[in-house]
Amino acid sequence: MSNLIATDLQGQQVDSPLIDLFEMSLPDGTEIYFHPGVDETTSTIQFRSLDNSTINTYIALPLIMDGIDIQADGAMSRPTLTIANVTAVLGNALSGYSYDDLIGRTVIRRQTLQKYLVGQTPDVSNPPIELNKAKYKIDRIASESNISVTFELAVAYDLEGI
Predict the structure, then answer these.
(1) What is the spatial distance between Cα 147 and Cα 87, in angstroms, rounded to a whole number?
(2) pLDDT in tens, 126-160
(3) What pLDDT is recorded for position 126?
(4) pLDDT band, residue 1 (cuts 50/70/90)
(5) Distance of alpha carbon 157 from alpha carbon 162, whole angstroms
(6) What DSSP character marks residue 69?
(7) How many of the other CB atoms lie within 10 Å of CB of 25?
(8) How far apart are CA 61 and CA 116, in angstroms?
(9) Is residue 36 classed exposed, middle or buried when 0-12, 13-18 and 19+ CB atoms within 10 A define those classes?
(10) Where would you tag: which of 101, 117, 137, 154 has the fewest CB atoms within 10 A of its CB?
């Protein structure tokens, strides 16, 4: 975690909203980038890659990640990622893959402040300023309907048989 973002979040007033960014690898190795939306807009946003070599464009996609619980003992939490299925945005991004093809694929959750996105402040996000990333594997499809699809996630070392 960058000292700059820690200082921003520990102040009495946080002057920029916290943004969730998601990256998912497809079976052919390509990556798709998405975020749950910023304010009421459905625009795309940009943020630097983890290795700082490129700028990635994240598409707005109605989603919610629920059940994140960090603890030192006991069973690991199994968060869920629910993505709205009412638009074709996710289907188009999957390039012909089905939801079943995503089982076992990696989902990375990154968090930063809106002011550290590309274009918000001049070159302050070089290298990217963010909280620690969280890496999950899609373990199963918890539910699928005409409205949404819900994936159950697991940390890589918590999967059965490992």
Answers:
(1) 9
(2) 678 888 889 999 999 999 888 889 999 998 665 55
(3) 64
(4) very low
(5) 6
(6) -
(7) 15
(8) 20
(9) middle
(10) 101
**Alpha carbon separation from 1 to 58, 91, 132 (Å, rounded):** 21, 33, 5
pLDDT score for 160: 53
Work out the average pLDDT over 46-69: 85
Tokens representing 146 are: 């005409």
| List of long-range contacts for 124-127, beta carbons under 8 Å, 24+ apart | 125/47, 125/48, 126/48, 126/52, 127/48, 127/52
Q: Between β-strands 55-60 and 31-35, what pairing exists: parallel, antiparallel or unpaired? A: parallel
Q: Considering the chain, what percentage of its residues have pLDDT values greater than 70?
A: 77
Show Cβ contacts of residue 71 under 8 Å, excluding neighbours closer than 6 positions. Answer: 77
Enclosing H/E stretch for 63 = strand 63-66
**Amino acid letter, 157:** Y
